[in-house]
Amino acid sequence: MSDSDDLVVEGELVEEDRLPAVPQGAALVRPAVKDDPDAWLPDEVQEDIEAGIADSTNTAYQRDFAEYTAWCLTVGRRAVPAAPQTVSHYISHLTRTPRARTGRPYSPSTMERIIASIRTMHSAAGVQPPETKGARKVVAGYRRKLSEADSEQARARKTSPAVPAVLEKALSVVDRTTLKGKRDAAILLLGFACAARASELILLNVESVTEPAELEGVGVRVRIYRVKIKKWQNLTVKFGSSPETCPVRATREYLDALAAEEHTSGPLFVRIDRHGYLNPPIYRAGVQIGDPTGRLTIDAISDVVELSMAAVGMSGRWRSHSLRRGFATAALMAKADPIHTSRHGGWADGSKSFQGYVEEADGLDERNPLTNIGL
């Protein structure tokens, strides 16, 4: 149920001083460093640099680059260092090549990410990145062609917003008497209340949720790392007005259930099997895989959201990002201050993605210019 193949790293082209690892086995031509004999890094420093990139970004870039190098081998072009014409040729090839999974080419946004991947991987290999103006013009022309045809590919693929009414319906079929049900309810409600990305939810530990004296009767404090702006945030999550959709009550119930299983530290959201066992080992081909602490993956968080919505027959495109989008939509529709809403959710000041939520909310309430004009 992962949509990782279509991942577009939202609003973030990785700076060239924050480089992912070049995939093992990639066909690279490494020219000798002639101009700067000091242009090298020890392995441990390269590891430090790689740690500065979100795992989802790193994975997407490495997959993109592996596909690019495979194409270069097929057509007889040099992958690294790439000539500008090679990148333009590859992107043009992508606009004409349907993918096996979808039956249509990559979207323009994904092609922009692929261009960024190629440049970033060049820098990671210590090679001057290619000039990509030609490749970007190919993408611009492709986007214009799709737009004129009103193709769905030219539109941003947005997740459906999990607003409170949607969450209430999804939670109505969650068995909250079980450990798994308590976990899933906490994922949905705490994820919404924190406007959290899946990559932020999986980093939470039991110790991340506290109840300081000043919040007695108000809520809990969640210490959360905002992966895009690379900052820690101490977030106040208040009690909800309804016990069924209250994020504080759901999180407390889950924490109490974890404590009963003697899980009082470490990852907050963990694997639970159908029998209710905590952190069961998982194997592939006889080899144990997965985080040994049981920490959930990004895809597992997305599965919780998607399966919960499917269980109540909710149509739409439901992913982990539905929680974050639902928070922004609901808060803005309730006339919450956009600046406070943005900062609560860890959006960067001036975020284009958040501005998109503001514009959508404006079109749904009395701020729509067609409201009360006498039609």
What does this structure look like?
By secondary structure, the chain is mainly alpha-helical. The chain has 2 domains: 4-154, DNA polymerase, domain 1; 164-361, Orthogonal Bundle (hpI Integrase, Chain A), CATH 1.10.443.10. The chain is 43% helix and 6% strand. The protein has helices at residues 43-50, 55-75, 84-95, 108-124, 133-148, 164-171, 179-193, 198-201, 247-260, 298-311, 321-333, 338-344, 352-362; strands spanning 209-210, 219-226, 231-238, 282-284, 287-289. 36% of the residues are buried. Mean pLDDT is 85; it is low at 1-21 and 25-34.
Query: Major β-sheet, in short?
Result: 3 strands, antiparallel
Which shape, going by the Cα principal axes?
Answer: globular
Computed structural class: mainly alpha
The second-level CATH architecture of the largest domain is Orthogonal Bundle
Which sequence of SSEs, written as H and E, runs from N to C?
A: HHHHHHHHEEEHEEHHHH
The average pLDDT value, as a whole number, equals 85
Count of beta strands:
5
Task: Identify low-pLDDT runs.
Answer: 1-21, 25-34
For the termini, the CA-CA separation is 45 Å
Taken together, the total number of domains comes to 2
Layout of strands and helices, then pairs:
Blueprint: H1 43-50, H2 55-75, H3 84-95, H4 108-124, H5 133-148, H6 164-171, H7 179-193, H8 198-201, E1 209-210, E2 219-226, E3 231-238, H9 247-260, E4 282-284, E5 287-289, H10 298-311, H11 321-333, H12 338-344, H13 352-362
Antiparallel strand pairs: 1-2, 2-3, 4-5
